[in-house]
């Protein structure tokens, strides 16, 4: 990926989070699927805050779990959940792109290690990301 210059990162943080430049705690909850039998297709919101984002992603998750030949999968296993979430996020990013490419920002190096997001502060994490581009939705997934 391509590193993001500090001034661009500051502008992005200001655009997303206003003068504070950091997300409120309720926005740091991530994406988690329900563990209740028959509801494994549903994303769980643990705190208030990002309900609009979760609702939009949930709609795309549902679409990804529906197959014309077999119908709707209400009991996806973890690999199917992960694939549906990746497809849902890619669908949202692809629809929001400007121009022929979509862009995705991902943690790199130490920030990409398991559990690093919870261990690192937002400032440190935002310095350890890189921009990636994709010219097809499949590449974005």
Automatic annotation (TrEMBL):
<dbReference type="GO" id="GO:0006508">
    <property type="term" value="P:proteolysis"/>
</dbReference>
<protein>
    <recommendedName>
        <fullName>Deubiquitinating enzyme MINDY-3/4 conserved domain-containing protein</fullName>
    </recommendedName>
</protein>
<comment type="similarity">
    <text>Belongs to the MINDY deubiquitinase family. FAM188 subfamily.</text>
</comment>
<dbReference type="GO" id="GO:0071108">
    <property type="term" value="P:protein K48-linked deubiquitination"/>
</dbReference>
<feature type="domain" description="Deubiquitinating enzyme MINDY-3/4 conserved">
    <location>
        <begin position="14"/>
        <end position="140"/>
    </location>
</feature>
<dbReference type="Pfam" id="PF13898">
    <property type="entry name" value="MINDY-3_4_CD"/>
</dbReference>
<dbReference type="InterPro" id="IPR025257">
    <property type="entry name" value="MINDY-3/4_CD"/>
</dbReference>
<dbReference type="GO" id="GO:0004843">
    <property type="term" value="F:cysteine-type deubiquitinase activity"/>
</dbReference>
<dbReference type="GO" id="GO:1990380">
    <property type="term" value="F:K48-linked deubiquitinase activity"/>
</dbReference>
<dbReference type="InterPro" id="IPR039785">
    <property type="entry name" value="MINY3/4"/>
</dbReference>
